[in-house]
Amino acid sequence: MGRPVTFYIWTILLLGGAAAVFGPVLGSIILWTVLMLIKTVMRDVVPTTVMRRSRSRCSAGCSWGVALMLLVIFRPQGVLGDKKELAIHDH
Asked: Which of 14, 57, 75, 84 has its CA 20 to 30 A from that of 65?
């Protein structure tokens, strides 16, 4: 399927929470909304004299990557996930 599709699928699972039933649905909604928001802001706010359109797409990808790293650091269980999912049980 390729790297972009694999990246989007993993991102959707990380966003919503892989163990939650509606996690992937919420993750896909969040992913699409944020990607469109970033692309729109980059296209409409940043003038072409500062950044070309092709560079704005790269910057949008970098922005999304940073947001994904912050999610994994501060909320690794996802939006709908539970902290107990990450706990290691002794028994």
From this structure: 84
